[in-house]
Specification:
7 helices; 36% helix; alpha+beta; globular
Amino acid sequence: MLPTSARAESGSQMYEVRSYVLGENGDAAAVDKYLETALLPALARQDIGPVGVFKNAPSDETGSQRFVVVIPIDSPDALVTMNEKVSADADYQKAANEFLSREPKSPAYARVQSELLVAMDCMKKLVVPEGATANADRVFELRVYESANERLGNLKVEMFNEGEVPIFLDCGIIPIFIGQAVIGPQTPNLTYLTLYPNEEERLESWVKFREHADWKVLSVVPKYQGTVSRIDKFVLVPTNYSQI
């Protein structure tokens, strides 16, 4: 994996994927209001975007209720600056006051999980297809592919760079971003977000993928065996204010 400085010079974006995990006693309405009225407007004032905000789809089987926020940035330094500017934003503080003032015994969420990704060679920037946000039926998948060690993780990245994305596209699986984890709770990993017109087409697309002739060839290449030790899959729908 290239150093982040080299990645920046090559034109690759970075992404923070931030999950507000609700837990058993979370307040989904409060988190939703905070994201819509406080955080996203504050990021917009910094010209950061498009920012995606998602929640569990009815078909999600994880049992982990959450809001997932995808924030594109240019560098790790930009992430630090972004958070500093949000904290110093008077309009943000006013809009977020009720949310930030909650007592410790009544938190709105159980925990925030976050990872920092660097875009891979196969997709150096986040892309939202034209007209996608106009489709109220659109569905997303966020997948996290863990690897047992860095060597295997880098091989999984190579596998994507060498041929998985064209197969995705041929099967109607539309990538929004694909990134390798720089830091996060599940490193080493590769994380990606994909888009589908609706739930039915999401299911059909993965059937096509598993049956695709090119995938059957790529998936049995010896050096790529055992590169994924765990997969987390979240089926998500966008909030009505998501920019993705």
